[in-house]
Amino acid sequence: MGRRTSLYDLHCALGARMVDFGGWDMPLQYGSQIAEHHAVRRGAGLFDVSHMGVIDLHGADARPLLEHLLSNDVGRLREDGRCLYSCMLNEAGGILDDLIVCRVAGDEYRLVVNAATRAKDLAWISGAATSRAVTVRERTDLAILAVQGPLARERAAALLAPDDARRALALPSFAASTIGGWFVSRTGYTGEDGFEVMLPSSEVEALWRALCESGVTPCGLGARDTLRLEAGLALYGQDMDENTNPFESALGWTVALDGPHRAFVGRPALERSLARGDARRLAGLLLDDRGVLRAGQRVHSAAGDGVMTSGGYSPTLDRSIGFARLPAAASGEVSVEVRGKLLRAHLVTPPFVRRGRVLIDLNPQSAEG
Amino acid sequence: MTEIPEDLQYTEAHEWLRRRADGLVEIGVTDHAQSALGDLVFVELPAVGRALRAGEACAVVESVKSASDVYAPLSGEVVEANAALEKTPETINQDPYRAGWMIRVRPSPQGETSPTLSAAQYRRLLDEQRR
Q1: Which of A121, A169, A317, B22 is deepest in the core (most CB within 10 A)?
Q2: Where in the sequence is the domain holding A294, given as residue range(s)?
Q3: Taking CA atoms, what residue in A is nearest to B62?
Q4: Distance (Å) from the C-alpha of residue B61 to the closest C-alpha of chain A?
Q5: Is residue B14 part of a domain?
């Protein structure tokens, strides 16, 4: 038996099919996974993401510690309530985890990390914090709900007191604030607008029920996976891990190398990798033949072979899409080994879909150069 | 809950067989199978005219989650394939025993057939698997 969130019994009562995810028993789907996907693209969907880890850092050395540990620059958080996406690297430049860091207030920061890496991250961060003026505390007392979709913010805000609703709706993208005792951020993992709400576990069931009553659709991890795939968002443990660096994982944009003073863990290894030239990259694929791309399938390109890291059916495109790790020079047409056959696909630049809009060209004649 | 029509035969691999008056055998996947697979997004059917051997993989159904082979429950020739499923695989989710049929097979005279189950036996199998 895996770990359970505060909403486990409610998920079961709603008829969810439960699966193991990173050691947690989580809902895969409540009904049709495709219907849940469309609910988020077209209306509003609700996810229990309480399996994710919340780690609070507090103290004079919180910022120097994060500058040391993260490959993105927390100095970019110029005011309280701003959030930043970053990788945390090992000495070899491999990705220990990808996370969101929020500057809550002054020398108080909050990290949101992946479920399967919580313990590893906490040990790594605590180790680095030794003899620094900073406290590291995992917030196992909090639950997290993600409300996502074009109608998500208004549906969620309608449940708040008028002043709180105004403040929530005024949050810019990638900003967070404590509103009515809850930590509300305008972030997500679906490619749609929305909030993620951290609140005491004792209050989460009431919020879940209220959101459902206001017409927000409960969604499982299955829909969350196809939504993030369409949104071009890499998944830790699948599209990246300790054996890949950010440049090989389409995450070069998150690495802040500006200024030699930024001596973060993994930087020397990344600079050596850059000097050599990237051997591999993570590319988006659109399948032109009928079939379904899946993680693990072999990919053949003119520049050499690679492997699918994620793949599946895109409900918005009604086509199969995925990510593959390929030789950096790979481009244009590729073929993928799908159940003993070679199917035609072409490389595209993700995201495939954002804010309900298709952002790639579905015509194979105009493949990425 | 899961629908198991009395007039059909079943396999342990969750296919159903309907023996028709015209001598053809219609084959599909069961309500339990479609429910376990989840939303179907791709179906690959054998070519009409293909000779099937009992027990061989003859079709593929893929859902949002995974791909599964469909095994021929008997030897024979594929006389018809439900090509509409290639455009609308979700028909199998919606109506697995009627509109969701996959192939119609003329059984070979040798009559080679994988062991089949009655509706009652198939229900017992599902009950055992649930435990």
Answers
A1: A121
A2: 279-366
A3: A292
A4: 10
A5: no
**What is the token pair recorded at B127?**
């009950």
How many domains are contained in chain B? Answer: 1
Structure tokens at A153: 């913010």
The CATH number covering residue B55 comes to 2.40.50.100
Task: Summarize pLDDT for A266-301 with one digit per residue, the tens.
Answer: 999 999 999 998 789 999 999 999 999 999 999 999
A332 domain residue, yes or no: yes
CA closest to B34 among chain A residues: A32
Domains in chain A, number: 1
Q: Give the pLDDT of residue A368.
A: 47
A19, A4, A6: which is closest to A220 by C-alpha?
Answer: A19
The string of pLDDT tens digits covering residues A301-345 is 999 999 999 999 999 999 999 999 999 999 999 999 999 999 999
**In a domain? residue A344:** yes
B86 and A CB contact within 8 Å: yes
Backbone angles phi, psi at B56, to 5 degrees: -85, 150
Q: What angle do CA A281, A284, A287 make, to 5 degrees?
A: 135
Q: What are phi and psi of A75, to 5 degrees?
A: -60, -20
Q: Which region, left, alpha or beta, applies to residue A140 given φ > 0 means left and ψ of -120 to 50 means alpha?
A: alpha
ipTM score over 0.85, yes or no = yes
Q: A103 to chain B nearest CA, in Å?
A: 37
Are the C-beta atoms of residues A160 and A179 closer than 8 Å to each other? yes
Q: Which residues of B touch A28 (CB under 8 A)?
A: 65
CATH number of the domain encompassing residue A297: 2.40.30.110
Domain that includes residue B96, residue range: 24-130
Distance CA A148, CA A341 (A): 37
Report which of A69, A74, A110, A101 is spatially closest to residue A88, judged by C-alpha positions.
A69
Query: Is residue B115 less than 8 Å (CB to CB) from chain A?
Result: no
CA atoms within 13 A on the CB side of B92: 34
